[in-house]
Design a protein that fits this description.
394 residues; 7 strands; Tyr_Pase_cat; alpha/beta; Tyr_Pase_dom; Prot-tyrosine_phosphatase-like; 2 domains; five-stranded mixed β-sheet; Protein-Tyrosine Phosphatase, Chain A; transmembrane helix; Tyrosine specific protein phosphatases domain-containing protein
């Protein structure tokens, strides 16, 4: 498709124009670091496994022939996977899409898609170079996000034994999924799963829930690309476990406990306020009153985190019914509701709070570390107590 040489070449112009969207020194630095990271990672891959475009390139005649001639005068058929062109495209596309007015975004997405396809239609790359290049670009976006601190800035290895153990399991699973890629062909897609699990291991070792870059109930584009296999599994898993079981149960005074829904349903004629305790799941779009404490799955929360969640529950009660959620509504959310029961005086201690919740939602799973955190909260944080308030009007 000779005409696609035009969008292929256009990335050189867009590369320079992308910096015009920067409105601060920090923004310039972030964009420059992203572009540099893409180039460093890609070049390292070119050195580690040098590849060459196979099958030759056809002769082009007509109006687009000079553009192909100019390209092939310096661009030799090496440096294939991951595609540096695509890695840079992801960074530039994100810069344009993030800073442009909404009315321009359809055009931006469409042109970016043309550039994406053009590396195939101009016979510059094989297909596998495209998704690998896109993941390198996504990695650069994750390393230097727009709205939060860099996840690896001031990296500190966690001292939490459970997080280290879970990180080791994710790392082992990553290695297992990398093995099929040695067979080539369609098995190369397993590299995406492997990368996703490797990044999860890194997140658990260092940045924790901040590594999921969940803002206002949504993950960053980089996380959605890099962790797509895991995020898909995280959305399917609750549905497999909670079939034919109640989505939510009333615990006390219009505070409900349940799984995070894809769409909020009314309770007593009103949409509930939502406390979302997941790091790995997106929030429903129709949540009018929403708070998120992003807690890692399978990791018991600390007493301070429990206190924050309890106060969020009480604050959200001003808006009517409150739905406290995690992936299944059996672990993280149950611990948060137990903390609220204790700090508000509705339960005399952590044990009674758990008994009260289990009577209404029998399948909750609170292990000894949860109980210890709740007991520590009750014993050592009297200043965190919540004043008793009247039940929310419904």
């Amino acid at each position: 498709m000779p005409w696609t040489i035009v969008p292929y070449w256009s990335i050189d112009l867009l590369y320079g124009l992308a910096f015009l969207f920067c409105r601060s020194v920090r923004a310039v630095d972030r964009l420059a670091l992203r572009l540099l990271a893409v180039q460093l990672v890609s070049v390292a891959c070119f050195v580690l496994f040098p590849l060459r475009f196979g099958g030759g390139q056809p002769e082009v005649v007509g109006v687009f022939a000079p553009l192909f001639a100019a390209l092939r005068a310096f661009d030799q058929p090496f440096n294939q996977a991951p595609s540096l062109h695509i890695g840079l495209l992801v960074v530039i596309w994100a810069q344009f899409a993030h800073h442009s007015p909404p009315r321009w975004r359809v055009l931006i997405h469409a042109w970016a898609l043309l550039i994406f396809v053009s590396v195939l239609s101009t016979w510059q790359h094989h297909f596998i170079d495209l998704p690998t290049g896109a993941l390198v670009g996504a990695l650069a976006l994750w390393l230097w996000p727009d709205e939060s601190e860099a996840p690896l800035a001031g990296f500190r290895l966690t001292r939490d034994a459970e997080r280290r153990q879970l990180a080791a399991r994710y790392a082992a699973a990553s290695a297992v999924f990398a093995l099929p890629a040695l067979a080539g062909g369609a098995w190369l897609w397993s590299l995406w799963v492997s990368l996703s699990l490797a990044l999860l291991s890194l997140i658990h070792l260092g940045p924790g829930s901040a590594g999921f870059q969940k803002m206002h109930g949504r993950h960053s584009v980089a996380v959605r690309m890099l962790l797509a296999p895991y995020l898909l599994a995280a959305r399917i898993n609750p549905r497999l476990w909670s079939r034919r079981r109640p989505d939510r149960d009333l615990i006390s005074d219009e505070v409900w406990l349940g799984a995070l829904p894809t769409r909020l349903e009314p309770i007593n004629g009103r949409l509930p306020a939502l406390l979302d305790l997941t790091a790995e799941l997106p929030a429903p779009h129709n949540a009018a009153h929403y708070r998120n404490h992003a807690w890692l799955d399978l990791i018991p929360p600390q007493p301070a985190a429990l206190a924050q969640a309890a106060h969020s529950i009480e604050a959200l009660r001003a808006h009517g019914p409150v739905l406290v959620c995690c992936a299944l509504g059996y672990g993280r959310s149950a611990a948060a509701v137990a903390a609220w029961l204790v700090l508000s005086g509705r339960a005399p201690d952590a044990t009674e709070a758990i008994v009260h919740i289990r009577a209404r939602r029998p399948r909750i799973v609170l292990r000894p570390p949860h109980l210890h955190a709740l007991q520590a909260l009750a014993a050592h944080a009297p200043c965190a107590e919540i004043p008793l308030t009247a039940p929310a009007q419904t």
